[in-house]
Known about the structure:
The complex is a heterodimer. By secondary structure, chain A is of the alpha/beta class. Chain A is built from seven helices and ten strands. Chain A is 32% helix and 28% strand. Chain A starts with 10 loop residues before the first strand and ends in a 7-residue tail after the last strand.
Amino acid sequence: MAGRDPRPDGPVIRMTGVSKSYRRGGQDLQILEGMDLEVAAGEFLALMGPSGSGKSTILNLIGGLDTADAGRIEVAGTDVGALRGDALSAWRARHVCFVFQAFNLLPVLTALENVELPLMLTPLSRKQRREQALFALEIVGLSDRADHRPKQLSGGQEQRVAIARAMAMDPTVLLCDEPTGDLDRSSAEQVLGILQELGRTNRTTVVMVTHDQRASDRATRTLHLDKGVLVAQGAPGSEAR
Amino acid sequence: MTLQGLTVRHLLQHPVRSLLTVLALMVGIFLFCFLTSIVTSLEAAVKAVAANRIVVGSAVSLFQSLPTTAQYIDGIGETPGVESVTRFTWFGGLYPGKDAPEPQFGCDPQALLSSYPEVQLDPAQARAWMEDKRGCIIGRLVAQSKGLKVGDQVPLRGTIYPRVDGGPWTFTVCGIYASTKPNVDEQTMYFHWSYMDETLERGEAFGPRGTSVYLVRLGDGVRGEDVSAAIDARFERGPQRTRTQTEAAFQAGFISMLGNLPTFLGLIGGAVLVALVFGVINTMTLAARERTRTMGILKALGFPDRVPARLYVGEALMLVALGSGLGLALAWVTQEPFRLAFGTFIPQYFVSADTFVLASLLSVGMAVLAGMVPALAARRLKAVEALRT
């Protein structure tokens, strides 16, 4: 997989006093308030909570897609809030990958090309990129669908291609926003199995937003949010406290 | 997978829309080249005329014949600075099956060929023409369009000079000429003025006597304006007053008959380009709207902000290169058919290298402008917002 970075022993993600609000319809909506969070390398963390509780905002802040109003976010030893422009893009390409509920594959590219796409940001040759992308597709069991366009794949297959795209980059942190939200049970189980395996074998830190209790059961830790505040946390399978 | 490859895929995502835009560009650029070339071809015809030739016509009207008496021929020929004189009369005959006259002129062959070195004729064919009173020479395009070759008989029905028996005039093709400059077309037939005049004299045909104009070649270093003034002064008291002008002024006079046509054509060409710019911007804006999420994905994957912007500019460049390239190619291949269609209206229609360069530069500018509109928006686009669309 692309340029593996050594996984630190301490927390890979450290959020300290993070606040975030959005202005909607002339009103300021406080999404996160003084959030503190630490996630260790190889941890599979599930974020649960009602809609609007700030789960996706946490993912966007960790991935540098959005900026916090206050507080500090450190990912893989880098203060994400201090990065701007190309430096932020380069950091994101190196450390973070996203898996979305809507899969977000490029419709004009084949499965293989979609997986290969972010590898263009690495120094790999064209041949190496192709080999790596094929390998990632093999891991998610889709090497026979390499030449298929997204619309020729089922939802579960699309999501596995999206995971392969992330795996090919071997990110320090994988941020998953409702990765099983649009999938049937069997596809969801496949996807969750792959995510679980990533943490175990690659020590990739996985942060997953989900509404699905069965999905959170696969996580090593589950956090519950409400109105931007952590209200409970627990081990897999435990009830929220 | 490369970014160029991705650009091509985006271009092919909506093949019908891309095709229509390419066709619009093709037609627009072709039209721009065509309209510009009409103006430049007319100007080139004026610029290409030799400085040592003047035209003597009637002061009353171009349609009024001048006498061909010794007083005129010798009078003009004896004017200081004059080297040679040829009578030059519009015949206006109809080729078989045609109902519109095409350019044929009665002239003095020797003087014509010596005055117009841009008329290229095989010396053997030139000699044959001199010796055959009924002989003629025809332009390369006449031979091509009418399937004529040396030795063929050309029957022409007279419109200004009909024959008394109602039959056609018959000429023998002695040679086929080519032209080396845009002021001389290749769609004209030249024949012996004396053959026509003698036929009229014998009463076998009727029509106005005299000559439309005299074409005069001047000696080296002689100022055309001075000789023109001297000739006009000589015939100041008649019997037919003359208006003598340089060949350039004579050609320019034809263009001025078109009024403000060159300006008008230029304005239309400019308007076509402006419409094209709006069309391409529209296509690119539509594409950008549909691809907001794609750009968000690219940014989320770690592609720098400039990459989505480059994709749009690249796509616009490809689109315009394709459409404009086809338009330029069309302008190139239609030169010959247009030359035939325009006849002597534009003696040598051609698309100049300057026009190709100008159209290419304008195309590049158009592509950059059309690509920059969505590119700037894509650069500012926040990934998190784009992914929500």
